[in-house]
Amino acid sequence: xxxxxxxxxxxxxxxxxxxxxxxxxxxxxxxxxxxxxxxxxxxxxxxxxxxxxxxxxxxxxxxxxxxxxxxxxxxxxxxxxxxxxxxxxxxxxxxxxxxxxxxxxxxxxxxxxxxxxxxxxxxxxxxxxxxxxxxxxxxxxxxxxxxxxxxxxxxxxxxxxxxxxxxxxxxxxxxxxxxxxxxxxxxxxxxxxxxxxxxxxxxxxxxxxxxxxxxxxxxxxxxxxxxxxxxxxxxxxxxxxxxxxxxxxxxxxxxxxxxxxxxxxxxxxxxxxxxxxxxxxxxxxxxxxxxxxxxxxxxxxxxxxxxxxxxxxxxxxxxxxxxxxxxxxxxxxxxxxxxxxxxxxx
Length: 346
Fold this sequence. Notes:
By secondary structure, the chain is of the alpha/beta class.
């Protein structure tokens, strides 16, 4: 991974501290400092943005490394032992040294280099890429490597700097997690399919009426391997007797099949709305949502290049509600040369 002019990066400066012959993990010392200051595992966890079990585990690891109990744990909180008070005094000095070192390395951090972003193909193709030219113009020296994957990249093993996912990671001591947006699931149908069956696309009541006769329409759905997904389950509840004409294992392919007129499909609202050939049905109200999360490694989250990418993603993924993604059709047509609802000039 590239860093500043000398190729340095704070992520590649794992810090160990020798203390009384023991080699200590700096992350354990940070947890100790927070616990000492807060006097409580719960408050220390809140301060650090981690779970209480993580704080407890790291304190235990530090005590085992030192061979000393550092706190007396009680219902009233944490009371430092004499050994804990001694370590507190020395840990503060170590903290000052580490802070000075990080600030010194930070001076080398510039808006250049490579940032790896892991995301799904469907989100990348339809939402991110049409919104990326502005970033490239603003930050010409930052190269963004998009890793197309449906699996959560192991950020703690440096498989990516940032990941965008619809599932919140359940663990990760060094992860920064931001909830980007919630999107309602809605039913979409191709303009050609709806028009072929006599639906006036300009009549909201006519579109809403489709929602009362869902089992009379063909559907595109997930394969049986993905029947556990919320979207697949919602479709089965909405129209259990409907004729499924095609089953697929990828959300983007489901949307493409629906856009081609194969059948109705249940999609996250923002994802369906940017497709030029799809129409969003106003009914029924599903009360089902899909949540997007932005996940990064704490060690690189605030480096200049990662911060620039992170903030650009937040700007257009969080700052736009689902209805406004209708405007994304214009970006999509400009980005890929797609036309709809009109003839091409000859």
